[in-house]
Write the structure tokens for this entry.
Amino acid sequence: MMRLSAETFRSLYLEHGPRAQGFFLRMTGYDRELARDLTQDLFMRLWASRDSYDCGRPFSTWMFSIACNMLKNEYRHRMTVMDYESHVDRTEPAVDSDELERQQRDDMLRRAVQRLPQQQKVVFMLRYEEDMPITDIARVCDIPEGTVKSRLFTALAAVREYCNKENK
């Protein structure tokens, strides 16, 4: 194991901080303040445990492993089922009908994802929002690749079912 210098860690923070905050934002139902707090806590934990970082492993895998554990604790201690609508920033609707239709589809997808159980939501977000390979998701979540695939399959089916019901 190689020790991360303060300068290297600063570079990693600048590179990965926005990605971590975006992940937390989506996972908390778009609670911006909570996402910022979790991101700050994440990087404080990463810094505190920097001696345990294996430089042969991608930083993002290590970062998301800790982020997922933080979310488990957050859900366990402070979170209840979140009302998606109360956490979305409202903007004026676009005049362009194509843009409005796209926004409506995006909103429907967000609502569907927010309804997923936490374990499915995590793998869904890592795969489709963070574009993480199945093998890395398995490492991050500390579960077999088959479990990742199963959770993704179930999550996609639930999202598809929700969207089909909303479109009727």
About this structure: The domain at 91-168 is CATH 1.10.10.10 (Arc Repressor Mutant, subunit A). The radius of gyration is 17 Å.
